[in-house]
Design a protein that fits this description.
This protein is an alpha/beta fold. 31% of the residues lie in helices and 21% in strands.
Length: 185
């Protein structure tokens, strides 16, 4: 970036290097983050290999153009699919999104964790009133689903839960392509 004319201070402010000038995204798989208009607003890095020290996921810090509490991964690519299907499936992470997308489930977005906000829901409401929750099949995912269900219903969504086998939707699509089932919550 520096060789392309970006200042050192801007690179640091964007969160690409830390206070010690260390590449914050080293040893990570990088996911570019695009807003609903397709504009690049940040990055998420997933640790690789899994035993490398540090948090599993690392996001670009909050900036004027990236606010995690408002950002939905993949929305730029799936808007038409959500409108056509009249429902949106919400997952926790980028891998869940990508593996579902590769398996032809196209009306899906990721919240980049389980911290769904009203800002996320208001953004989704522009495309559909039907929300299918597909958070991870663990305690955190279950609690997040309960919170999301209450919040979404207050905002006028019809909510559903996607039932599938495995730890998360990414693992499900990795292991099997059997019938997942919708049940209303």
């Amino acid at each position: 970036l520096y060789s392309q004319g970006y200042s050192y201070e801007l690179i640091k402010k964007a969160g690409l290097i830390d206070a010690q000038n260390f590449d914050r995204f080293q040893s990570r798989i990088i996911f570019p983050l695009r807003d609903e208009k397709g504009k690049l607003v940040g990055f998420t890095g997933r640790i690789f290999p899994d035993n490398f020290p540090g948090p599993k996921y690392l996001n670009t810090p909050e900036t004027l153009i990236f606010k995690k509490s408002q950002f939905l991964y993949g929305l730029y690519f799936v808007k038409e699919h959500i409108l056509a299907s009249k429902k949106v499936i919400l997952v926790e992470g980028q891998f869940d999104f990508l593996l579902a997308w590769q398996s032809n489930l196209k009306n899906i977005v990721a919240v980049s964790g389980s911290a769904l906000t009203e800002d996320h829901l208001r953004k989704l409401k522009k495309y559909s009133n039907n929300l299918v929750l597909a958070f991870d099949n663990d305690e955190a995912g279950f609690k997040a689903s309960l919170r999301a269900n209450l919040m979404a219903r207050r905002l006028g969504f019809q909510t559903f839960r996607l039932i599938y086998q495995g730890k998360d939707l990414g693992e499900y699509f990795n292991q099997t392509l059997t019938n997942a089932d919708y049940t209303q919550t």
